[in-house]
Amino acid sequence: MRRTNTVCLVAVFLFLSYWATGQNVQTQNWAGANSSVIAGHFDMDKRNEQRNITEHINVNYALSPKPFVKSLNLELNTAQPTLFSADVLDTKGQVVKHWVPQSKSHQYRTTIDIASLAPGDYRLNIYSELSSSVQYTIPFRKEKTN
Length: 146
Prior knowledge:
CATH class: Mainly Beta
Number of helices: 1
Largest sheet: 4 strands, antiparallel
Strand content: over 45%
Shape: elongated
C-alpha cells in the first residue's frame, strides 16, 4: 500500500513539474490545471484502405486566454498532418466566426477575434478533412469587455 502511494505521489510530482514548465495540460477541467486555459484531447477515425484498418488520430487542443473577452487563441496538434477548420456558434446555432488555415499541418495556432460578440455562451465546432460532420465541440463563455 505504501509503495502504491509513493508511486502515485511521484507520478503527480512529475506531472506537475512537466505542467509548470509551460506545457499544455491534456485533460479538460483537471483540478490543478491553469485556469486561463481550456485544454484536452479527442480522437478521430481515419480509414486506411491499404491495410484495411481504421486508425485513430489523437488531437490535442487548447483555448486561451480565459476569461474570453477580446480574442480566442486556438491551438490544435496532431501527429499526422490533418486539415482542420472551426466555427464559433452562438446559442441559436448560428455561425458567428469561421476559421480555415492556409495549409495542412500537424500543428495549428491561430487567434479568433471575438471582441464584437455579445457576452454569453458559445461553442467552437472543430471539423477535419476526414469527415463532413463536427469532429469535436468545445463550449466557452465570452465575457463582457472591461
